[in-house]
Design a protein that fits this description.
Layout lengths: L1 E4 L3 E7 L4 H13 L1 E7 L5 H12 L3 E5 L2 E7 L11 E2 L4 H11 L5 E5 L2 H5 L3 H10 L2 E4 H4 L1 E7 L3 E2 L2 E3 L5 H11 L2 E2 L1 E5 L7 H8 L4 E4 L2 E5 L8 E3 L4 H13 L4 E8 L6 H8 L3 E10 L2 E9 L7 E2 L11 H9 L3 E5 L12 H10 L4 E5 L2 E6 L7 E3 L4 H13 L3 E5 L11 H8 E2 L2
Parallel strand pairs: 2-17, 3-16, 6-7, 10-12, 11-13, 20-21, 24-25
Antiparallel strand pairs: 1-25, 2-26, 3-5, 4-5, 7-9, 8-9, 13-15, 14-15, 17-19, 18-19, 21-23, 22-23
This protein binds ligand SPQ.
């Protein structure tokens, strides 16, 4: 149970934990590479620890001490058939990317996770991987876990993804790295491109042409050092805290500002919020900066189209900011929210309404009327880390006390969230 109370001010300097998407990929690519990969700034959240445990179970030696991880890569076909099923916990990224890798392996493997994973759609990766030649089954003809995967020789495909999803794109590209010929994936909008960037850092040739990415089969990854920047999706909660609590300002150091992830900065600025990028640099093909954020009066905005994949995980906390903005905020084209750890349209509406916010669900998003006076409430994270944290931020703006049940879900992506918020919050 997490308790939050109304804040007077948010102030100081912060560093957020490592990027979740980049941490997963660093371990996976390190395991498949030849030689050692040393990772610093690794996210010690439950999801990325699930990725480590799956690859250990396939015979990869991985040392982890705090945020330092060393992976002894054995080359693409150095993985061993695991003796029991693999458990991905709560992590959609682990199961979908790993399915693409397992599709190339000459062995059988069963993969599953928690109740949330059991509800999330898998056919979006199973269908293209089957088309490439992998034998995959699961409940409802491969839509749901457990997935049973028998990999083998694959052929390259040109796949037109119906959804802008980095997990679909990455799963197919990873399978394509050991398929015959060229594999390409096209998507309707650009999704996060950490896979493309990191594969290049590991020595793979990746051809990018607009919304299409291609790889030639049979390429070798070479182990290397990876520095993981802070996760902008975690920084988003701190940015929102500054925006909903008057007189606040904060310096957040070392945040990844990959343009496929910075929709939150664009939206906060469009709403009238002040964010400055300082000390911009590039680390392992990924742009990084320090963010100086200052409280501002916000106005409502419209969030749609190409912007959606660039801030999909931030929508719960954007909805919280919108409750404190002047006027209406409309979020559309975001039906993907329905298949995240929870149905995030339904859970944002149910939990935010408990504070007295005016938020109405639509088929592909929501409409928020601001500003609303929020009153502390008894909230449930419903097992979704981003819902837990978004509601904790609403608690900083609400009069009275807020309690968040099932707050341990926050450890999935932001261990230390509660302590960091305490450190940055002035209540007197
Ligand atoms: O890994 P998981 O559970 O899917 O995590 C989420 C999150 O909120 O942390 C989504 F629920 O992030 C996804 C993100 O939404 C992580 C991700 C990635 O690392 O490739 C890509 C996005 O998902 P998708 O389906 O758009 O590819």
């Amino acid at each position: 149970m997490l308790k939050m109370s109304q804040a007077k001010r948010i102030t100081g300097e912060a560093v957020v934990p490592g990027d979740k998407s980049i941490s997963h990929r660093a371990v996976m690519f390190g395991a498949l590479a030849e030689g050692t990969t040393s990772i610093s700034g690794f996210l010690q959240g439950a999801d990325c620890l699930s990725t480590i445990s799956c690859f250990r179970r396939m015979g990869i030696e991985i040392q982890q001490e705090g945020d330092q991880v060393t992976v002894q890569g054995k080359g693409w076909f150095g993985l061993q058939e695991p003796e029991r099923g693999l458990d991905v916990g709560n992590s959609g990224t682990t199961i979908r990317l790993m399915s693409g890798i397992l599709a190339t392996q000459p062995f059988h493997c069963v993969v599953e996770g928690d109740e949330s994973i059991a509800r999330r759609p898998m056919r979006r990766v199973v269908t293209p991987l089957r088309e490439m030649g992998a034998k995959i089954d699961g409940r409802k003809n491969g839509e749901f876990t457990p997935l049973s995967i028998r990999g083998g020789e694959l052929k390259g495909i040109a796949y037109q993804s119906p959804v802008a999803s980095a997990q679909i794109k990455s799963s197919i590209l990873l399978a394509g790295l050991q398929a015959q010929g060229i594999t390409s994936v096209s998507e309707p909008h650009l999704s996060r491109d950490h896979t493309e960037r990191m594969l290049q850092a590991f020595g793979v040739e990746v051809i990018r042409d607009g919304l299409t990415v291609s790889v030639q089969g049979g390429q070798v990854l070479k182990g290397r050092e990876i520095q993981v920047p802070g996760d902008i999706s975690s920084a988003a909660f701190l940015i929102a805290a500054v925006m909903v609590v008057p007189n606040s300002s904060l310096l957040i150091r070392n945040v990844g500002i990959n343009p496929t992830r910075t929709g939150i900065i664009d939206v906060v600025r469009a709403m009238g919020g002040h964010i400055e990028l300082q000390n911009e640099r590039v680390v392992n093909e990924e742009p990084v900066a320090d963010l100086f954020v200052q409280h501002s009066e916000l106005t409502g905005t419209v969030i749609e189209g190409d912007l959606i994949p660039r801030l999909i995980d931030e929508i719960p906390v954007i909805a919280v900011m919108a409750t404190q903005a002047q006027g209406r905020t409309v979020i559309r084209d975001a039906e993907e929210l329905r298949v995240k750890e929870t149905d995030r349209i339904a859970t944002v509406v149910s939990e935010l309404s408990k504070f007295g916010a005016k938020v109405t669900p639509t088929a592909d998003g929501m409409v928020i009327e601001g500003p609303a006076k929020l009153t502390g409430a008894a909230i449930d994270s419903l097992g979704d880390h981003r819902i837990g944290m978004a509601m904790a931020i609403a608690g900083l703006a609400a009069e009275g006390e807020t309690t968040i049940a099932n707050a341990e879900a926050i450890n999935v992506s932001f261990p230390g969230f509660e302590q960091l918020m305490k450190k940055l919050t002035v209540t007197e």
